[in-house]
Amino acid sequence: MDADRRAFLDDLLSTPSPSGFEADGQRVWTAYVREFADDVSTDAYGNAVAVHEGTGDGPAIAFAGHADEIGFMVRRITDDGFLRLTRVGGSDRTVSKGQHVTVHADDGPVHGVIGQTAIHLRDAADDEIEDVSEQFVDVGATGEADARELVEVGDPITFSSGVEDLHGTRLSARGMDNRVGTWAAAEGLRRAVEADVDATVYAVSTVQEEVGLKGAQMVGFDLDPDVAVAADVTHATDNPDVDDDARGPVELGAGPVVGRGSANHPRVVDLAREAADGDGIDYQLQAAGSRTGTDADAFFTSRGGTPSLNVGIPNRYMHTPVEVVDATDLVAVADLFGAMAERASTAAPFAVDV
Question: Is residue 103 in a domain?
Answer without folding.
Answer: yes
